[in-house]
Amino acid sequence: MSQGLPDRIDCAHLADQGMVLERVYPLGEMPRLRDRLADVQGSVRARFAFAKLQSGRAVANVAVEAAPHLVCQRCLQGFAYPAAGGSEIEFLSTPDGGATDSEREVYATVDGQVSLRELAEEELLLALPTVALHAPDSCGRVADFGPDQRSRPFAGLQDLLKKT
Description:
single chain; alpha+beta; 17% helix; two-stranded antiparallel sheet; 3 helices
């Protein structure tokens, strides 16, 4: 985490001030992300721009950039995936704060406080692919099944069924 800077912040106060914060977090500090990584090297750069809506609610534009090393699901090798994402988030002090009709992502706060690291981690998870794959031309193991090379794992099952 950025040295000397608090992670938990009062989003309403920062929204009143119209503050913009930038942080850099090591990928190893993001527990929900670790299972998807080939290694925990690298960092995520996050930008948080706070504002206040006419309704008085606090919002933030959250943007992240990173190049985590993911595991290719074809060849099981690590590769750098350039990820970037952004969302506008509306903060609610209670889970039933009535913003179900909001056009923005809704994030419930705890006593008006949020963790910037958790916001950055959430945004990075949204920016990553569901299934990580190399580009087909750079992957070490791309299967090219032609019409006569199809895999038929249950081909022998028909013979077994005839015997019974």
